[in-house]
Amino acid sequence: MGADMKTQLLNDIHKLSLEKYISEIVGSVMEGMLKCKTSVDVAACVEVVSALHQRFPDNFTLLLSGQLSKNLQPPNKQYLATLSAEQKEKEESARITKQRTYLRIACELWLVGVLRSVTDGAAALSSITTNGVEAHRDGVAGFVNTTTSTGNSSTTKDQQKKKDEHGFVYSVLKDLLANDMEQFINLPLVASFLKNYGQTIMGIVPRKQKAAAEQHAESIALEIDPESVVSPDIHGLLTSLMQNYYKSVSRHMVKLHKAVKKMERHNNETLFARGELSEENLDMPDLPEDEAANKQSSMVSNSGNAFQQDGKESSNVGSQGMWEDEDARKFYEDLPDLRILVPDVFLENQTVKKDEEEQEKEQQPEEEEIIENEDVDPLEEAIENVEDAAGDEDGSTKPTQNAQLEGFIARLPNCANRDLIDAAAVDFCYMNNKNARNKLVKALLKVQRQRLDLLPYYARFIATLNVYFSDIGETIIAALTYEFKGLQRRKNQDLIESRVKNIRFLSELAKFKVTPAHTIFYAFKVALDDFTSHNIDIVCNLLECCGRFFLKSPETSARMSGMLETVMRKKNVQHLDSRYSLMVENAYYQANPPDKPAIQIKERSPMELYIRKLIHEDLCKKYLDKVLKQLRKLHWEDEKIRQFLVKTFQKIWKIKFGNIHLMAILASGLNRYHSDFGVQIVDGIVEEIRMGLEQNIFKHNQRRIAVVKYLGELYNYRMIESPLIFDTLYTIVTFGHEYGRPARERYCPIDTPNDFFRIRLCCTLLDTCGMCFDRGSSKTKLDNFLVFFQMYVLSKSKPPMDVDFMISDTFEMLRPQLHIIPTYEQANEAVDRILLEQLKNIQGTDKVPEDRMEESGEGSDSSSAEEEEEEANQLDDDEEDSQDESENAVEGDEEDVVVLKKKQEEISREDEEDFEREFNKMMTDSIESRKFEKKAAMLDVPIPMNLRGSQDRRTIARENNKPETGKMAFTLLTKKGNRQQTKIMEIPSDSVLAVSTRSKQEAEREEQKQLKQLVLNYEEREEAAARQAVVDERAKLKNQTRGKKVLYIPGGGSTSSGGGGGW
């Protein structure tokens, strides 16, 4: 019956033969009416029904009128009496929903003339004849066992005519409202009727239209259509019906309001008098003790004291308790007892008698009207209200007492810890009187808006005094509640600090059980009803301050959990900005933290903790030797300690990035004494690099950078050789690519074209140890890899700026004169040429031994002077340790001890033989290379003394200052008689004389450098020998003092090894 099916239905109505299916059509029309929710669907439904009425006016319209009048009848009271309260509520709710739709469509059909009166309807086709033939009895559900409204009616003809004159809508509404003058269940139907047809049928002018007419000083004239079905009589009857129903509803609401106000006033009096509401004083029915009772409406206040715990104390400390930790629990629960600290005479509270208070309350009006005044501060209003309630102050206070009180109040803002605020509570007891209490209340209420840190301490102060001076707590709660209501009437955003201070003060007092629970929930509900702007701040501050306390308290847990669910639902439904959304989430999870298991701290042995302290805390350049000695002194035979050390040295990403080279020094130092330990470290590092290439997890990128740098540092400190570095470099750029070669046309899932992290790995490794590959075969290998690396970079997409700068910096540091290949095709051709040359070299000659010798030579040359000094120091330490061990062994035996050093002797002999072999080869090569050198002609003419030094100076000046002109200056020496003469001649620099002279000068400079290096090496060897002699002398002295003989079988192992190390 909706708008989308209107056209098809109208065509079917005009074309199809439907006379035999009238009852089925009526039933379907009644079902389709219930699906018309919008105005467009209602209009389409009216048009379809009108078409059916035009074609079948004698049977369809009568059946439709009967069914509509039946569905719009009031419910059967006898049937409702048999239902329970819950079933009755559901039944009435379903009936109201159904009748609201039927009433709207019936009004539309009545206005267009389809429906006329209730008496026109027929319940079945049995009483209707079509063309003189009686139709069959309709068996549609809902039409059986019903009485006809025409033939079998019990009304008289006069009554039928009278009803016909009133119309269909009036008859239906009169029957509905006549039986609903007590519970007013049909009020939604009346509201829907007036909303949709108040102007059309009732002639009610909307308020907006009336206001616009008054603004323009125009009069509104109601146009009466003479042909309309709404005659003046029907209009008067409907108006009278609605006015009578409105008066009945008004009387009922006023009666309920008075009853609620009376109950509320009675409960407040009981609450403030006794501190709790007992079941005897409640004029409310008993509620079931199930979960439904806990989900009552937030409009109803709590029916009991939320803080009665029957003397039971539970452990509410921790992540699932109401307190964060033990200190918080002590702060809010362990209050000082003033009766122990103060004499009883100072704790007497002289209050007004209860009878006089009750008389004053009876004289007050039932409900105080709060006058809005935007110019008055709500806090000032609250304080004035407190002063009015307190009455006249005691004027008998002495000036000295006033001075003491003012000094005490001035000292309160400085009481920012528990001890000071407890001492202040004790001090106040000695100046206690009515005037002092009133001034104290004013001072506590006037706390600065920015000093939110004082509110917990002020709340503790009030809670401590409230035990013996209850009027302080009651007055402050009343003032804060009054201020809260005043702030809610003002929607200004500039009062946000006052709102936050007010709600946090109430919340802190609630945690001390001074503020009743219903007051907090009332503020919570008011803020939730208008969950916008400043109210969001109120809700968030309330949850942060006392949300966890109420959620974990057994008495308020169910209600607070429901309020929290409401908060999250409102947050999800409303479109809050990011700031408010984040505030709500933080407040929610602070009040209701998620259940997480406690983090289990890994238990470590004392030895493991000591190793971690050495590595993670003590390791630095200054204490490097100390840490190395301590690690060497560990019990390396213990497998657990050994495995822990291996794990620590392999997980280099847990070390500071600046200490990676120090870890490499430690690993190199320990590898000299525990070679298998070094092998395990290198294997773990290589495996970690390969695993990173396989997984390619983004969060492990920093770890992978640290591991690659660690590998480069291990090469710098001679733990690994260059082949492993080059294998790692090629593995990084080729792993996962088909045929072991990256290419643009082949896609690699673990190394996508827009992934540049492998480039970072290569640059990090080259920056760490690439400068060592500057001679021999390693230089050639690095040059070849740089070409391959350029091809790998060009096979990817255009790198970002930081990666591009990193590549440029690496090339600039390693090969400043390197030719940068611009295109991928050129780089691919260069790689093919390199591979072809390597293939020819492999097929021609086997150069593996030479490469190994050159690489070993490079490794030895790459050591720095600092490493040699460290080795010397470590060697001294080793000698001292070995001597101490030998001395300990001597002390244990009385006989002579023979210490054999055969292993050292064999090692020294091997070193000696290698040295002799290398030296002989070097001398032979030198002699062979000089056999075919041409002897230069010696100049037998002596050079003047004044030209020897000047020649060198001129050469240096020419090289440094003079620009290149393509010529070389020579000094021509001639002799005329007995006098020598000189003349400057310029010869082209490409001539044979200039070239040979230049090459000779360069050869002489190179020879001088070599001689200088040899002299320096000789001096270093002499110093090392001197140190070794001192060590030997010291050892001999120690052996002599022991009085034992220690026989050494001499072999010169240490001396030989020391001399060989210098070469």
UniProtKB/TrEMBL annotation:
It comes from the Eukaryota. Residues 351-364, 898-907, 950-965 have a biased composition (Basic and acidic residues). Residues 406-594, 609-817 form the MIF4G domain. It holds the Pfam family Upf2. Residues 278-291, 365-379, 856-897 have a biased composition (Acidic residues). Transmembrane segments: none annotated. One of its GO terms (biological process) is nuclear-transcribed mRNA catabolic process, nonsense-mediated decay. Keywords: Coiled coil, Cytoplasm. The keyword Cytoplasm applies. It is found in: Cytoplasm. This is MIF4G domain-containing protein. It comes from Rhizopus delemar (strain RA 99-880 / ATCC MYA-4621 / FGSC 9543 / NRRL 43880).
